[in-house]
Design brief:
Layout lengths: L1 H7 L13 H10 L1 H5 L5 H8 L6 E3 L2 E4 L8 H14 L5 H13 L1 H22 L12 H20 L3 H8 L1
Antiparallel strand pairs: 1-2
Helix pairs in contact: 2-5, 4-7, 5-7, 6-7
């Protein structure tokens, strides 16, 4: 199955995306095929077609409603099932994303958000012909704070002209 999908999608390996199973790939092939996904100019339009993007209603700069539109397709169900399965995994970048959203807004919202993210990743890999690269360079909020604190301390050290001898005196 993996070889067939690899050939069908012109050398793009969708199984490299963490959590993506053969079921999602089979549903993708059965429901839309390769040519249909290329008819969407942007990933945003693809996710809106799947009804995974929020329907923002804004009036006067104020967000009145931001719910996911009603309606479902087999492909949307497959993306949500895959997102739910990823939520049960132990580690990975998508698992971390799922856990952050789950902590803030609950499991149902996290499943929908991860399903949308998976749809965007798959759209990018298929339309742009790129293999999946998990973003390992991203720093999350705690790591950003630590890096900012280290830079501030280094700046203070250079500002006051402290040397290693001065710093060893402070620690003793």
């Amino acid at each position: 199955m993996n070889l067939i999908a690899y050939q069908y999608f012109e050398g793009v390996d969708l199984m490299a995306i963490e959590g993506v199973s053969q079921g999602l790939i089979m549903t993708l092939i059965a429901e839309i095929g390769l040519d249909f996904i290329r008819k969407f100019p942007t990933a945003k339009q693809f996710t809106a077609w799947l009804r995974l993007a929020p329907n923002n209603k804004i009036s006067g700069g104020k967000v009145l409603s931001h719910h996911i539109p009603k309606g479902s397709s087999r492909l949307k169900i497959a993306f949500r099932t895959t997102a739910n399965a990823i939520g049960n995994l132990k580690e990975g970048w998508l698992v971390d994303f799922f856990k952050r959203i789950n902590y803030k807004k609950g499991r149902a919202t996290a499943v929908t958000a991860l399903a949308r993210k998976l749809a965007v990743i798959i759209w990018n890999t298929l339309v742009k012909g790129q293999n999946y690269n998990p973003p390992t360079q991203y720093l999350f909020l705690d790591e950003k704070r630590k890096m900012g604190m280290v830079k501030r301390i280094q700046k203070q050290i250079t500002k006051f002209g402290l040397t290693n001898e001065d710093l060893s005196f402070i620690t003793n």
